TrEMBL record:
Binding site for [4Fe-4S] cluster: 34, 57, 60, 66
Organism ancestry: Bacteria, Bacillati, Actinomycetota, Actinomycetes, Propionibacteriales
Location within or outside the cell: Cytoplasm
Protein name, entry field: Transcriptional regulator WhiB
Any GO MF annotation of the entry: 4 iron, 4 sulfur cluster binding
Keywords: 4Fe-4S, Cytoplasm, Disulfide bond, DNA-binding, Iron, Iron-sulfur, Metal-binding, Transcription, Transcription regulation
Amino acid sequence: MFDAVSNQSLATQLLAPVVGEIFDPMFAADDTPCRLVDPEVFFAEQPADVEYAKSLCRDCPVQDACLAGALQRHEPWGVWGGQLLVQGEVVARKRPRGRPRKHPLPEQTEVAPSVVRRWALEPQHKDRRVAVGAQQGPGRGSEDRPERAA
């Protein structure tokens, strides 16, 4: 949302005075990440954008003071001091939008080549032998192959 008069985003209007009050003037220099990028980055909706905002804070000289100040003020949301705050509490990562899964997905495991070969040789899987044909050893499944003309 932009202010028509000053053409600044609402986040910029709200965050700039807070940053100036929180930090010692020495640390509120223009080279801190929160001063160099659009402040809306620190209030992103997408998990990837939140991780980007957190990465901007990694080398910031006021990272610890920023987080402490945000926790003291009970900031409701946003990335402060390299941490994501949701409802005033530090959260490890932002959950994507939408309803979470009721049951977690099962872990994917690799199938042993011997099982793949055995599966391909079973009569009910005859049509799928082409897909795993490269894994069959020489002479296996040859009864289904047409004779070559000499």
